[in-house]
Write a structure and sequence with these properties.
InterPro entries: ABC3_permease_C, MacB_PCD, Macrolide_Exporter_MacB. The chain is built from 13 helices and 12 strands. α1 packs across α11 and α2 runs antiparallel to α12.
Amino acid sequence: MLFSLRIALKSLATHKMRTVLAMLGVFLGAFALTGVLHVTLAMERKAVIETEKLGPNLLMAMTGNIRFRRGDIRPDAGNTNLKLPDAVALLRGLPSAVDGVPFLSFPMPIRAGDKKVMCQLVATWPAYPSIRGATPQYGRFFDQAEEDDKELVCALGPAIARRLFGTAEAAVGQSVFIFRARLTVVGVMEEKGSDVSGANQDEQIFVPLSTFMRRMSNKTYIHGVYVRLADGADFDAAREAAVHILRKRHDIKTDKGQPDDFKVLTAKDTMEVKQQALDLVQTLGFISSSLSFGIGGLGILSIMILLVRARRLEIGIRRAVGARKKDIVRQFLIESGMMASAGGAAGTVVALGVLAVVYRVGDFPSVYHPALIGGTLIGSAALGILAGAYPAWQASNVEVLAVLRDE
């Protein structure tokens, strides 16, 4: 075995260019398979984390149709059909509803002193932190008395607080302006990052819903309702009940086939939206890696056939001094397997290096799947052995006398 291994290494070193070309397809296949599938796994993990940021047992009813953009979920803010009484009806009518809050959300410029930044304004009720799993890091969230009295107060996302006041802690007690309205900052929220809906929760400003609707904008509609369901609630049943309540309130005729003018989603639904995009990426990864592996296998097959023809004398001499057919077969299978294994190992190592950079730059969780890495390496070796089977058979059937006579 060691003798065959030494011959294989010498042969591959002698034909460097052929060896590199044969390895290239397997390298690309291993790189694509390792890279794309690991990125997909990391994106799935990130989607799970983002879904958890939506809040525990969350159901969302949103106005109009939901727009999907780059995997993010956006309510159709142009619709005005969802009203505050609809939110109240949902919270009272859903048997599994524990609590909930209506909300309005708009991109808004916010100013403090000579600094002005864009943020996402969220007008809602005081129960928002418990519904969405958000906690003030400094200060507090606005309370029910401030909601009832339409007070000009707000809570800031930490990114907005830092951009306006240098540090999040320094923002508490300061004033910010939205157009001409002067709001007092009563709290700064903890770091949350983006949720699965695509909203960066660190770049939001939260104001009492009554304040925004009556003192700042004179709006009569809402964009949606967040409802927290009881532990163990049937999400499908809750969704159907919410749809029934809203269709009845909006006088949508089922027998006439009238479509909903709203959308009801659960955290599970938002995850499925992300998963559809990830499945497409994964499928494309499988296709590209399969093509690369196929090309690599053909490359190894071609190179090994050329090597058999170039080494006919070597094969003849070995057979003449007592080498058996299976020794020749083993020799060429070792060589083809080593080429493919080296290409697969190189592709995997480079992919892991690129993944480390992608995880860091893209703020993805670091996911490394040992079974996937091991499977890629084993698959590469198996591909090489399979591709080398026919050339090895050819080599073992070389006619010794004919070779020696020709030479």
